[in-house]
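Translate sequence into structure tokens.
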Amino acid sequence: MKKMVAHIDKIEDPFIDPEGDTNKIFFKTKKESVFLFKTGSIKISCKNVSDEFPETTKMLMESINSVTSRILEIIQGVKITEPKISMMNAQTKLKEFPDPKKFAKVVEPNIQRKGWRVFRYYVFSGRKFHLAVDKHKRCQIFAAKSIEEIKEKITF
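Result follows.
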């Protein structure tokens, strides 16, 4: 049997597993959706990396820790290890196409397949952190570990 997820859209109205076996907590802010796991791992997804997004990972974590503290007050009894970002996903519009020379690997789109055709720019070999960029310079960012990592590779 799968462990249940506590979905918290409004901090005042959390869903709590009646058996107290919550494996992860999900909450949304105006800027991002956050999965917080008991192990302390955090998965963040945001619609757009923009001027409203925090400048640094430290600023983002301060915001997440503030919300996490309020959640833990509400759902007393759930123990969560110190939160740490394990994955950030985001999307943005690029001003220019990425320079393939700056990446460990570039995978061209398969034009035989239907769907969103994108170039995949892998930032590091051996890691899943990559950018998926289409012909309109729309970019999805997958598996980053920090805001600084994203900003280092992308020109907004």
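Note: Residues 1-18 have pLDDT under 50 and may be disordered.
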